[in-house]
Amino acid sequence: MASKKNHPSVQQFKEFVKEHPKIIQEVRKGNKEWQEVFEDWYLLGENDVIWNQYKEQPAEDNSQNTESKTDFMSSIVSAMKNMDMNTMNQHITNMSSTISTIQGLFDQFGVSKGSKQSNSGTGQSPFSFRKD
């Protein structure tokens, strides 16, 4: 007879979980167990304040953005853990030497930030400036 009384409550609990999909996520992540959730639901009822955090809200985009940012940051942190720092240092050194070489080429051919106009025309600036 006890199993017949439990069946309607189990059905109600299933409907409750469908209305609160974040509970499923918590259980799958391992933060909670179904038995614990069922006991809380049975003792506290459906209208308790603790269930508000598990409801699907219309402004779900903000929480998904926050969750995706958290996922993104955790993926970056895990990538940093897997990175070989010696290899990274070698790549940074190579990039630095490449940039230095390019700057040296610009200096050798007389190309600088402000000399775009001096290359066109006669090669002389229309203004006379003296170097000190």
Q: If you average the pLDDT, what whole number results?
A: 77
Radius of gyration (CA) equals: 33 Å
State the end-to-end distance.
104 Å
Order of helices and strands: HHHHH
**Number of strand segments:** 0
Shape: elongated
Description of the molecule:
By secondary structure, the protein is mainly α. The chain has helices spanning 2-19, 21-29, 34-44, 60-82, 85-108. The longest helix is centred in the C-terminal third of the chain and has 24 residues, at 85-108. The mean pLDDT is 77.
Defining traits:
132 residues; mainly alpha; elongated
SSE layout:
Elements: H1 2-19, H2 21-29, H3 34-44, H4 60-82, H5 85-108
Short description, anyone?
The protein is built from 5 helices and no strands.
